[in-house]
Every structure is written in C-alpha cells, then in structure tokens.
Amino acid sequence: MDIQGKVFIVTGGASGLGEGTARMLAANGAQVVIADMQADKGEAVAKAIGGAFVKCDVSQEADGQAVVAQAVSMGKLMGLINCAGIAPAEKTVGKNGAHSLGVFSKTITVNLVGSFNMIRLAAEAMCKNEPEATGERGVMISTASVAAYDGQIGQAAYAASKGGIVGMTLPIARDLARNGIRNMTIAPGIFGTPMLFGMPQDVQDALAASVPFPSRLGTPDDYAKLAKHIIENDMLNGEVIRLDGAIRLAPR
Q1: Predicted confidence band at 195 (pLDDT cuts at 50, 70, 90)?
Q2: CA atoms lying within 13 Å on the CB side of residue 84
Q3: Shortest CA distance to 5 belongs to which of 80, 78, 73, 66?
Q4: Choice among 32-46, 113-127, 166-180, 189-203 with the minimum mean pLDDT
Q5: pTM flag (> 0.70)
Q6: Does residue 223 carry a catalytic annotation?
Q7: Count of other CB atoms within 10 angstroms of residue 126
Q8: Which of 53, 116, 158, 191 is catalytic?
Q9: Which residue pairs, CB below 8 angstroms and at least 24 apart, start in 129-135?
C-alpha cells in the first residue's frame, strides 16, 4: 500500500506513540485525522502536520463515528492506528483492600473496547473503498504491550486489556479478509512515552538498562517505523509483533 495521498486515523495521536506515527504518516504524504481527548495538544499536532483533529473518547460510539466521518470527508480512508490507552497500576488486593472494579472496568473499556470500537467503525467505511492494485481496502494496527504476555505486579487490569487486543487480532483479520482489510497489532516493550516520563529518572534509567539490546527506551520513531512497514507490506496480517529489544518483564 502506498501511503501517499491516503487518509489515516491515529487515535491517541496528540502525544507519544500516536504523535510519532501521525508525523510519520504526514511526512509520507498522508492526510491524518488525530483522535484524542487532549484537545490543545491534538489541535497543535494536527496544525503542524496539516491534518485534522477530532476530540474523541474511543470507547464512545458517537465519538468514533465523528472521527470516521471526518476521515472519509478528507479522501480515501485506508488506515487506522490505535494508540489511545491508559495504564493504571493497582494490585488485586492492596493496602486499601480489593482492586477497584471501576478502575478495572475503565481500563478494559478504554484500551480494549475503545480499540474494537474504532476498528469496527473504520472497517465499515473501508469496505466501501475501491481496492488498491493489491486488492487491499485498508489496514489497521492496534497497540498491545508486552504486558499482555508477562504482566507485572499491579498490572492485572492493563495486562487483561492488552491481552484482549492480542486475542482479537487474528479473528478480526479473518473476519475482514474477504473485504481486503488487514488487521495487525504491535506489542511495545518499555517505551519513552508521557506515561513513563512521569516516573522518577532513576526508575527510567533502570528500566532502560533492563532491555537486553538495544539497552535504551523505545521511541515513538521506533514504533512509527514498524507501523510504516506494516502498512506497506501487504503480507503482514493477523499477527502480533513484539517491539521490545528482547525484554521479558520480571514480576516487578
């Protein structure tokens, strides 16, 4: 698939992995719709890359529909990259008692339900596309995490939400195969994002040192480069790619 001239939606595109991906897409000639709750940052990034911003709670049907409508109005919607998400930390039973059910539910709702909501709505629009020379009508990339496989202490909710994204990758790809729409997932390791940068510097340094090679934090550019390859390589479908420098998370 050629990125040039196509329309892409990036959820969570106002910062972190999403922003890096949105900038990569624009640099390669795409029209980008940034869907995010951070209005000021989202509008600034959209302006910088010549795209559009739509304030969006990915778990809400009406918000997702508004994003897809904006994208379709700009041209041929060919891609969705799901980067929106939250990462709370809470033990199943901690000092204050049982894990908050509200926190668990919200994490599943934003990370898992939100990703599926955007996939189903974008796919519906992509089904109406004239296929490319490859037969493709679109490609979707969601963001899981290595926590889906080796979630740490305090990550029950986060790991469950990301494990759900891993689990639905193949069946969605199979569902949409007849429509010429691919579905992929990236599972990042320890990346330098706003969530991680909120931690103390010594913690950040220790996390970076724990990556076998390269012994550094991943960057939005690392993620964006893989997203670009997935978009352009039409044989990549129905799979989860770990982007983690060979790290396997310890219990804590």
Answers
A1: low
A2: 33
A3: 78
A4: 189-203
A5: yes
A6: no
A7: 25
A8: 158
A9: 129/76, 129/77, 129/78, 131/180, 132/1, 132/2, 132/78, 134/1, 134/234, 135/180
